[in-house]
Design brief:
278 residues, mainly alpha, two-stranded antiparallel ribbon, hydrolase, two-stranded antiparallel sheet, 11 helices
């Protein structure tokens, strides 16, 4: 992969990034079809020198764009055109062509509900205290739901879906029929709890964000850097740092970034935000 240095990629914060790697999971990044083909050819040639061969069936391409109709690109390995997808999984998270995390959140919710059903006999057993069952939910179901949440941008719509999922769990744990006209406040009271899911997610995000900001590495650059190029028309999408700044009541984004340098101060800000809820 060292041979990719200096070749075209995307510009973030003034730095060129053309690949992401974790073990044998590799993503090549380019601004156009020609540059992407060039990167892939280099990887193929260097792999063959080591006696390795790219798996054409497992290698896919995706265009990230705001356009409703995605442009078709033609990328080849030894004359075989690679399949173009609008989503792919990388390190367990679903990456979508529109650059949003809606599909990933929906996938996480579905997986969490499926695993809840598998543990239904325990989680809905009234012979076990609700406190113990909630603890089981935290240990076995919530990690599935919140996997990769450190990188989520939580819009109002996403927050509503997550809060609805939290109530879905509690209503089933209490065996409340969907026909029963019980308010969420009543359900929370019977479960001896409050809404905690969004605060848990935000806490994980803030903890990870603070860790990233204290490291002068790629993660820091990607999180704080700006993509070079023209700004798109219309309302700009909310950024992770903006959502965190609002939750922490840290003023402006730059003030939040500065606060991460002081571990004690940052931890105190997170603790205060958790106490205040979502």
């Amino acid at each position: 992969m060292r041979n990719l240095e200096g070749h075209p990629g995307i510009k973030i914060g003034g730095s060129n990034i053309n690949n992401l790697r974790y073990a044998d999971d590799t993503v090549l990044i380019a601004e156009n079809e020609k540059d992407l083909q060039q990167l892939l050819d280099i990887v193929k040639e260097e792999s063959e020198k080591k006696g390795l061969e790219l798996n054409r069936k497992k290698t896919e391409v995706m265009v990230v764009s705001r356009k409703q109709e995605l442009p078709i690109i033609n990328i080849y390995i030894k004359g075989t055109r690679l399949k173009q997808k609008d989503q792919f999984k990388y390190l367990g998270s679903l990456i979508s062509s529109d650059g949003r995390n809606n599909s990933e959140v929906a996938s996480r919710i579905a997986q969490a509900k499926t695993n809840f059903q598998k543990m239904k006999t325990v989680l809905t057993n009234k012979n076990i205290s609700i406190r113990t069952r909630r603890r089981a939910l935290e240990c076995y179901i919530e990690p599935i739901l919140m996997y990769g949440c450190e990188a989520w941008t939580i819009s109002k719509q996403t927050q509503k879906k997550l809060e609805a999922t939290e109530m879905w769990f509690l209503r089933r744990m209490l065996r409340i029929s969907w026909t029963a006209k019980k308010t969420n406040d009543t359900v929370l009271e019977e479960a001896h709890t409050t809404r905690l899911l969004i605060s848990k997610i935000r806490k994980r995000q803030a903890t990870f964000f603070g860790h990233v900001m204290r490291r002068e590495k790629l993660e820091n650059l990607v999180t704080t850097g700006m993509l070079e190029g023209k700004r798109s028309r219309g309302k700009q999408r909310e950024k992770l740092i903006e959502g965190l700044t609002d939750w922490l009541k840290a003023g402006k984004s730059l003030e939040a970034i500065e606060a991460t340098k002081d571990r004690k101060k940052w931890r105190s800000m997170i603790a205060n935000a958790v106490k205040q809820g979502t």
